[in-house]
Design goal:
Blueprint: H1 21-28, E1 32-36, E2 39-42, H2 44-63, E3 67-68, E4 74-76, H3 77-80, E5 93-94, E6 108-110, H4 115-123, E7 134-143, E8 158-168, H5 171-191, E9 197-201, E10 211-217, E11 223-228, E12 234-236, E13 255-270, H6 272-276, E14 280-282, E15 288-290, E16 292-299, H7 300-310, E17 312-313, E18 316-317, E19 328-332, H8 337-349, E20 354-357, H9 364-374, E21 378-382, H10 384-388, E22 391-396, E23 402-406, H11 410-413
Parallel strand pairs: 3-7, 9-12, 19-20, 19-21
Antiparallel strand pairs: 1-2, 4-6, 5-6, 7-8, 8-16, 9-10, 10-13, 11-12, 11-13, 13-16, 14-15, 17-18, 21-22, 22-23
Helix pairs in contact: 1-7, 2-5, 2-7
Bound molecules: adenosine-5'-triphosphate and magnesium ion (MG).
Length: about 425
């Protein structure tokens, strides 16, 4: 991608209506646009990052047997009423046809979670123990009435979520799958450059049972966790039996209080939804039983915002390579566009993702500042100085070290 063609531009100043670092940096660098409080557009650079996160999630969900599907955002009242969740103050209600409708009562809610929709779908296909287990997921926009939408991508009123649901004959079978998902989640966050802490938590509006959250330690986090300094056993303060200074119930290490961001959440839902929506199966003995369910969520935008909170410096974002919008940020100086064009074309031919600052109306200082702000992992510079050595300057975003590589060797050094 050539920067001269990219329709977005970096902003000189941080936006004044944002408090959180992730929002300030992502708006300034042209990754996202704030449409309203808690509602963002993903611009070309930001959309690339979000899609990379989505691809990582897909790979790991597919690897544990998750089947991808896509459900509607408009959820009719009849789905939510049987579980008592129609009246919860979480969603935005929508009228079916404002003018034609005599009664003003809303018939739809913008989907904020899809247990009811998928459970209803499953009643059409699942009838025997032979049909179980199975799991299905989607990556889709969710809508939630969030009162405090002020943390940028961390808490949106509209946001992208991966929601996986699993269906089992028994609690034991669910437990085994739950462990698999937990492992896949740790992998997903690690691949996105985040170290996740497996944390015991309450169930909110989803289940009466204990759940597990994947927390990323960060001072901007809204959550407080008590975590062992040795084995990393952790509990969310909402349910915690341990407190600061206690001994760890697992390993006798020391418990510390930390702020954190919940990027993922997994739930044992038992038979709450299957009973309410009549999803049953006939067991080997011929008896009918409600299906046992689990649900597992990850907020994609929240992951992206968290990565920025964790990986930045005073000059900009430092993207982990797996989710960087581009691997390489190529800068041309001193009007050597012909030589730099060739480097660009060669890298593209070799399958390297390159953002190429070919703009002729920018100073070197502006180009370097933009490269640091946007935060691609590797910066290459083609200039008079480097060409005298028949080379290109290489610098990693997370290091100060500068090296010159021969043009013919660039690919090897990336
Ligand atoms: P929170 O306690 O932060 O409100 P939640 O318990 O409501 O989250 P879930 O319904 O379990 O979250 O959603 C699954 C995942 O979706 C969360 O772990 C988080 O990553 C993401 N998520 C939830 N609410 C938001 C939001 N308002 N904005 C962005 N991501 C969100
Ligand atoms: Mg919530």
């Amino acid at each position: 991608m050539k920067l001269s063609q990219l329709f977005t531009k970096t902003l000189r100043e941080a936006p004044t209506d944002e408090e959180a670092i992730n929002a300030k940096l992502l708006v300034r660098s042209g990754f996202v646009f704030k449409n309203s409080a808690g509602i963002y557009s993903f611009l070309p650079l930001g959309w690339r990052v979000l899609n990379k996160i989505a691809d990582i999630i897909r790979e790991e969900m597919n690897a544990i047997g998750g089947q991808e599907l896509f459900m509607p955002a408009l959820v009719e009242k009849k789905y939510m009423e049987p579980t008592g969740r129609w009246d919860l103050d979480v969603g935005y209600y929508v009228n079916e046809k404002r003018k034609a409708q005599n009664e003003k009562q809303e018939q739809f809610v913008l989907g904020w979670s899809h247990e009811e929709v998928l459970t209803t779908i499953a009643t059409k296909f699942i009838s025997s123990y032979k049909d179980l287990p199975f799991s299905a997921y989607q990556i889709q926009t969710k809508f939630r009435h969030e009162a405090r939408a002020k943390s940028g991508l961390l808490r949106g009123r509209e946001f992208m979520m991966k929601d996986l649901y699993s269906f089992h004959v028994s609690e034991e079978d669910l437990s085994q799958y739950y462990e698999k998902v937990a492992k896949a989640y740790h992998k997903i966050f690690e691949r996105c450059g985040l170290k996740s802490i497996y944390t015991l938590a309450g169930g909110g509006v989803f289940t009466d049972k204990f759940t597990h959250e994947f927390q990323i330690l960060s001072d901007i986090g809204e959550d407080t966790v008590y975590i062992c300094d040795k084995c990393e056993y952790a509990e969310n303060e909402e349910i915690a039996k341990i407190k600061n200074g206690d001994r760890c119930p697992n390993c006798n290490g020391k418990i510390e209080e930390k702020k954190s961001i919940e990027v993922g959440n997994i739930f044992n839902q038992g038979t709450k939804y299957s009973e309410a929506l009549d999803l049953q199966f006939t067991g080997e003995n011929g008896h009918k039983k409600p299906v046992v369910m689990g649900a597992y969520g990850i907020g994609l935008g929240r992951v992206m915002g968290t990565v920025v909170e964790v990986h930045h410096d005073d000059r900009g974002i430092i993207w982990p390579e797996n989710i960087a919008p581009f691997k390489v940020h190529l800068i041309v100086l001193d009007g050597h566009n012909k030589e730099a064009d060739k480097v660009y074309d060669d890298l593209i031919k070799n399958g390297v993702e390159v953002l190429y600052d070919d703009r002729e109306d920018r100073t070197p200082g502006e180009k370097f500042a933009d490269a640091d702000l946007i935060g691609c992992p590797i910066r290459l510079v083609v200039s008079k100085k480097t060409l005298e050595k028949d080379g290109v300057e290489i610098k990693k975003r997370n290091s100060k070290e500068l090296n010159i590589a021969k043009i013919a060797d660039i690919k090897k050094q990336l």
